[in-house]
């Protein structure tokens, strides 16, 4: 076998909030919360570091965040703008390698094994961070390691603006000593299960046999012996060449009304989910196509913070897009749904339930 792989995980710091602070100088140095309105039972997408000092966290209800930090600026997410920044970030990555696997709008794995030169992967990671700072006026944190699991853990260790390197010869000792909560995929609930069984550090998983870990942690349990020893063989899976997967229906007779269109969308999304499963793909951008009775045609798109493949999130996005059309007032001849910005369904997801960093 060849030498160890060199993997870099890059993760923008407080991404949405940092883009807002960059574009609106009056917000710099101030607490910023990006999310919906408290009345919508929304949750925090991202909080600036100034807001985090008040205890505000990603995924917390916005109502609670506003109670903790009443002075924060509360902004709605502008995914189109974040998506444009993300596209530029990927352009920077692709100058180094095409082996780039997006994990969310602001996180990606790069396999730089084949392109390392003098200074190694660490020099590449530093150059990526420098380019992001120079061209995007934003900071990112990077982790350099022999595999995806450790690179992801590493990028989180010195946020913001961090650079953490785990040398191949240090990987096992590093992994064994990891507090379980640092393992991507282990959230508060799983951490509680761990603690109930006396599992504090990754090395403690090795006291349990494979069957016991499967019983305790489901499918995730199958990976824990390897992860505890710093082993992860999953390849970096680049973004798909295929651009989009879509489905559409022309109706035998024009349909009218929002409710009728919404019902059709649910049906389209269910079929789209099957197509996504067949293609083993997930995608970040949902596009709704409407052709009215007079043959005029419009499209509406939304880019999500995570790649999706299931009907439920697709319908949720499509419904929002449908409100931005005239289907309530005009007859509709055709509806279509499309998912684009595709990634491999298993990339960064299975068997390890990697999720984008909650604290991004
Ligand atoms: Mg981030």
Outline of the structure:
The protein is an alpha+beta fold and 360 residues long. It has helices at residues 15-23, 49-52, 62-68, 79-94, 120-136, 148-155, 171-176, 188-196, 210-217, 224-228, 258-279, 311-322, and strands at residues 7-12, 32-35, 44-47, 73-75, 100-104, 107-111, 140-145, 163-165, 244-255, 281-292, 297-308, 332-344.
Could you state the order of secondary-structure elements as H and E? EHEEHHEHEEHEHEHHHHEHEEHE
Q: Could you give a short account of the major beta sheet?
A: 5 strands, mixed
Instruction: Look at the structure and give the CATH class of the largest domain.
Output: Alpha Beta
Overall tally of structural domains: 3
As a percent range, the share of strand residues is 15-25%
Shape: globular
- What would CATH call the homologous superfamily of the largest domain? Reverse transcriptase/Diguanylate cyclase domain
- The proportion of residues forming helix, as a percent range, comes to 25-40%
Ligands: magnesium ion
CATH topology-level name of the largest domain: Alpha-Beta Plaits
The number of strands is: 12
Give me the Rg, rounded.
22 Å
**Total helical elements:** 12
**What is the CA-CA span between the terminal residues?**
35 Å
The order of strands across the largest sheet is 5-6-1-7-8
Protein structure class: alpha+beta
Mean pLDDT across all amino acids: 91
